[in-house]
Write a structure and sequence with these properties.
The protein has 222 residues and is mostly helical. It has one domain. The protein has nine helices and no strands. It is globular. It starts with a helix and ends with a helix. 39% of the residues are buried.
Length: 222
C-alpha cells in the first residue's frame, strides 16, 4: 500500500505543469503601455490632443491589454492573487480603452461628434482611480517597489480624471501624464528586479519588502 501511494505521488509530481513567474511579463506590459499613455498626456514627444490619443490604441489593446490578461491568468495558476488581480484587471481596462480608439468600431467618432469623449474618458479614469486605490490597500504588505508603482498610478489617474471631467484641462492632464511616466519607470525597475531574482545573475535589485520595513519601524518605536 505504501509503495502504491509513493508511486501515485511521483506520478502526480511528474504530470504537474510548471509555470514560470509571470510577474516580469505583466510588469513589462504595464510599464510600456503606461509610459506611452503618460507621454501622450504629458505632451512629451507626442503632442497632446484628442486625435493623438488614438496612437495608444495598438499598444493598449494588444501588448498592454491582451498580454497583461495572459500574465494575470498565469499568476492565478501560480496562486499569486495580488499580481493576478492587478494584471487581469488592468489588462481588461486597457483592452476597453484601446477599443475606444479603433477607427472601424466607430465609437471614437460617435462620442467625438456628440462632444462626449472627454466625459467618457473621465468616467473611465474615475472608475480606475477608485479601483487603483483598492489595489494600493491590497498591496500594502507586498513590497515597496510595487506599492510605489501603484501609488503613482493612482495619482496619475486621479489627475487624468479631474482633467478630463474639467473639460480637457491641459495643466491637470500634463501632471497626470508625468505621474504616469514615473509609475512606468518604477514598474520597469520592479520588472528587472523580479527577473534578476529569478536568475543566476551577478547582482540583485532591492524591492523593499513591506514586512521588513514594518519591523524596522516597530524597532524604532514608530
Amino acid at each position: 500500500m505504501a509503495h502504491y501511494e509513493m508511486r501515485g505521488e511521483a506520478a502526480t509530481t511528474q504530470t504537474e505543469p510548471f509555470v514560470a513567474n509571470p510577474t516580469p511579463l505583466g510588469l513589462g506590459a504595464f510599464a510600456f503601455t503606461t509610459a506611452v499613455l503618460g507621454c501622450v498626456y504629458a505632451g512629451f514627444i507626442v503632442p497632446l490632443g484628442m486625435g493623438d490619443l488614438r496612437t495608444i490604441a495598438g499598444a493598449a489593446l494588444f501588448y498592454g491589454g491582451i498580454i497583461q490578461v495572459l500574465a494575470g491568468m498565469w499568476a492565478f495558476r501560480k496562486n499569486d492573487m495580488i499580481h493576478a488581480t492587478i494584471f487581469s484587471s488592468y489588462g481588461g481596462f486597457l483592452v476597453a480603452l484601446g477599443a475606444i480608439f479603433i477607427p472601424f468600431l466607430g465609437f471614437f467618432t460617435i462620442v467625438g461628434v456628440a462632444g462626449l469623449l472627454s466625459p467618457v474618458l473621465g468616467l473611465f479614469f474615475l472608475c480606475w482611480t477608485i479601483f487603483t486605490a483598492i489595489l494600493v490597500l491590497g498591496s500594502l504588505r507586498t513590497n515597496i517597489a510595487l506599492l510605489a508603482t501603484l501609488v503613482f498610478l493612482f495619482l496619475s489617474y486621479l489627475f487624468l480624471t479631474i482633467g478630463q471631467l474639467a473639460g480637457f484641462n491641459l495643466a491637470l492632464l500634463h501632471i497626470g501624464g508625468w505621474l504616469g511616466i514615473i509609475s512606468a519607470l518604477i514598474a520597469w525597475y520592479t520588472c528587472l528586479a523580479h527577473m534578476l531574482a529569478g536568475t543566476e545573475g551577478f547582482f540583485r535589485l532591492p524591492m523593499g519588502h513591506a514586512t521588513a520595513f514594518e519591523r524596522r519601524m516597530e524597532a524604532h518605536g514608530v
